[in-house]
Amino acid sequence: MRNYLQYVFLTAVTIMVFLLVCIPDIEYDSYVRFEVARGHPFSLTYVHGLVFLPLYHFVESFVVLTGSFGLMRLFSLFSVVASALLVERVSKLVTGSEKTSALTATLFILNPMVLLYGSLAMSEATVTMLTLLFIYMVLQRRYSLASIVLAIGILTAYTFWMVIPFLTIYLAFDSRKRNILWLIFPIMAVVLWGGINYVYEGNPLHFVDTARTIHLSLNDSFLFQLALPIKLLLYPVIYPLAFASIPFVEALRKWRVNCITNGRATVLFTYLVTVHTCLLSIGVLTGYILGWGRYFIVLIPLYLIMGSSAIEGSKHGKVLTVAYLLIAIIGTLIQAQIVYSFRGMMLP
Question: What is the domain extent for residue 230?
Fold first, then answer.
């Protein structure tokens, strides 16, 4: 099984290296963030008014010192490989099956959307890696490390902020009550970012207003012009079917069974998926974010872990795997065309 996974990983890395070398970065945001890092390296004052969280910006600032934009793309590649390894570990903890965990890791690292963003200089691969590392630490009951990872995530992506309520309740019911003290790390991270905004702008929530102002200025974008029903369905239905298809359907179908057999993991996954989906949907509807498919990448491994056992246990497993990959290829090509068109609109 290990030899099989090594071949899968080697294939995925080869594809990502090919994309990195032969295809330009199609994301407008990756160029913007790199220019911000070049103009304001290791600085907490950004041209976008403190809307970028600092940790990924500092990583880019370090890379700027080398003068190579390609290194940021390599960092994404590393994050995808690390994420796939964590998918295999988490899946094995949840299912107890080496075959299922190997299949889940395979479906993740060969997912076309994951491969694409593993070759681009964007933070989605890093956010996915941190999310899976947090899940792994929680399931292993290593709450001190989970809290540290969550604090790092909070200073990397805003979606991590809503994990604090879950971890608070989770630790409150833990047999070792003193574990709740580990919440100090994520709470300090939130206070730190609010304090930075207050020092520079006089408002601890300045980043909220700035984010909406930036995105409303892009109202000519195709994603802003989508009909309301489509906006509502982007993250709960359309992207799950496009990028997780069969495992997504199976995860919903088997949710009650998973609650019985893997209660702790299912509750954690359900919370993360629900909160993430709700935040993104609300953000699209209120104009705080554009409805990019890349924001869904972090949920792909969660649906795979919850639903891929149905593929592994089916006599039509190979057909279902091919169908999953074909659907994801179509979805990724459509998303890549939209992203590239947006880049062409924004860059002269």
Answer: 2-207+217-346
